[in-house]
Structure formats: C-alpha cells, structure tokens
Predict the structure.
Amino acid sequence: MKKLIKIDWTKNKPTLSKKLNVFGSLLLFLSFTIQMFLYNTWDEKIKQFDQANRDFTEMTRTSLEYQNLYLGLQSQDSLTKQLYQANFIKAAAEKYRMGKIISTNAELVGSKEDAKKFVDNTNVLLASIQQVTDLNTLYAFVQIADAKIPENRKLKAEWMDKMNFKKKTASFFFLAFQILGSIMLVLGFRYQN
C-alpha cells in the first residue's frame, strides 16, 4: 500500500517570512547603494561646480585688487612704479585667466578635440600675459580671454538642472526603497512567529 504524503500548510509562513526578510534586506541594501554611490556622487559634482563658480569670483576679485594696486602706484616715484607696476598688471591678467580656467566645468568641455582646444587656448592666454603692460593691454587681454574661453551660462544652467534632477530622482528611489524594505522586514518578522 502506498503511503500518502501529508502536506503541512503551516510551513508556508516561515517561507513567506524568509522571502520577506530577504527581499526587504535587498531593498534596504539597494537604498543604501543609491544613497552612497549615486546621490552622493551627484551631490559632490554640484558642490564642486558651486565651488568652481565661487573660485572664479574670488579670482576675478583678486584680479581687480591687482588692478587697484597698479593704479595706486601711479602717484609713486618712478623707481617704485618701475619695480611693481608691471608685476601687478601681469598678476591681474594671470588671476583673470586662472578664474576662467577654474570656472570651466570639465564635463561641459565636450569631446577630446574640444578639450585639446581648451588646453591650447589656455596656453595661448598664458603666453599673452607677457604682453600685458598697462590697463589698455589688460582690457584687451580680458576680451581675448572671454573670446577664447566663453562662459556659456545657458549650458551651465542646463547641466545644473540635470544634476539636480538626478539627485532628486536618486533621493526619491532611496526613500522609496528604504520604506518598502522596512515594511517587508516588519512583515517578515510578523509572519515569523
């Protein structure tokens, strides 16, 4: 005579509990991964972008201070003017060039050809600093710098909007997975007993 297999239907509860615990843990791990790798990465890029803009402002301010030092020497004797004025006006040009370089977001440069062109332009500007001798040549240098390294505010704003959208999306999924994972773990513990 054949033995009949008896099915114990109460064993489904521990299996369901284990499934809920495993999937809940996976969702919590996914939430942690999103926060640590995606959200924090995009947040750091935004902070670097903001810092670059602050550095550009600081470099521009420093350039203006060197211009003021240059102008302040106008009333000095000719030896003092000869010793310091050329250095101050060249420092003003160099600070402006550095500000333009710092404010350029590397991700917005584009292709390798564009990056090479950017480097070439900064090198041309570096060589042009030696030609800066007074305010008129400094202003001409600033115009050249602005032409060679244009500030594309619209492109920067679009990039910033894109990063903020990615950051908000990551925070939404982080929170959603955190909540779902926690609920699954609580239900898993409930069905365990």
In short: The CA atoms of residues 62 and 95 lie 7 Å apart.
